[in-house]
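Task: complex structure prediction.
Instruction: return C-alpha cells for all chains below.
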Amino acid sequence: MILAAALLALAAPATPPAVGAGQTVSSAPLADTQLADPVAEAKAQALMEELRCLTCQSQSIADSNAPMAGDMRHQVRSRIAAGEEPEQVRAWLVERYGDYVTFRPGFDWATWPLYALPLLFILVAGVLLFRRIGRGGE
Amino acid sequence: MKRLWLILPLALFGLFIGLAAYQMTQPKDEFVRSTMIGKPLPAFDLPGETEDAPRLTSQMFADGKPRLLNVWATWCVPCIAEAPQLDALAKRGVPIVGVAIRDEPEAIAQFLDQYGNPYTAIARDDIAELQLALGSSGVPETFVIDGKGVIRYQHIGDIRADNIDEIYAEWEKAK
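Output:
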C-alpha cells in the first residue's frame, strides 16, 4: 500500500508541461461528457459509432482518441441535445465531407448494388437449390 | 458449354482477388476533400488572436474582396514549413485570414514572432467548429473565399514553393 503510494508520487511529477496541448486533447465540453438525457446519449452514441474519424480513417469517432474525433463527438452530442435527429447530424457531416464520413452508405445510384446483389444471390441460390431438390425427388 | 458455366463463379472470384491485390499496391489518397466548394462560407463567430482582439465573423468575408482562409495551428509542424510561402503570398498582396485550431494566444504570439506573420487577422477555433463546418479534415489547409463569401478552392496540406502560383491564380480567379 505504502509502496504503491510512493510509486504514484514518483510517477506524478513526470508529466510534461502542456506545450502544444491542443495537439493531444479536445477541449470541447461534450467530447467525453455524456449527455444527461440517457435517450439522447444513446442516440448520439449509436451515431458516433457510424461516423468515420477523419484523421484516423479506419476508426469511428466513438473509438478514436484523436482530438478531431473529440471535436466531432462534441458536434454530435450538442446537435442532438439541441433537438436534431441523428440523421440530420449525419446529413450535416455528409454535406461537408461526402459519403466518406459515414460507415453506413446511403441508397443511391452508386450504392444500390450493395443492397440489390445479396438479394439477387439469395434468389439464384434458392432457385438452384429448389431445382436440385426437385430433381432428387424424381 | 456446361463446363464454362461451372468455371464462371471461380473466374469472378479470381477477378475480385486480382482487383483487390491491384488496389493494395496502389498509393492511397489519404485526403478527404471538402464538398463545400461552391457553397457559402458557413456562418461563424470566433474569438480573435488575443483575448482583447475583436471577434471574427463570417460577415467580414462578404465585403467584395477575395481572401485566403488558412487553417493552421502552432502545434502543427508542416505549418512551420508553410510559413515562408504564406509570407510570399501576403507580399504579393493576398489577404490571408488565419484560423488557429485548438490554440492559445501566447503560443500564437510566439509562433508569429518566430516564423513571421502573414495574416490580416486570426480567429481561434478552440473546438474545431469552423474547421468541421468547412469540411476541413486536417492542418494546414487553405481555402480561397471569393468577395461574396463563397468557398472557391481548397488546398490540402502545406503550401509548397511550387504551389504559390497556383494558389495566387485561384485567388485572382475569385475576384
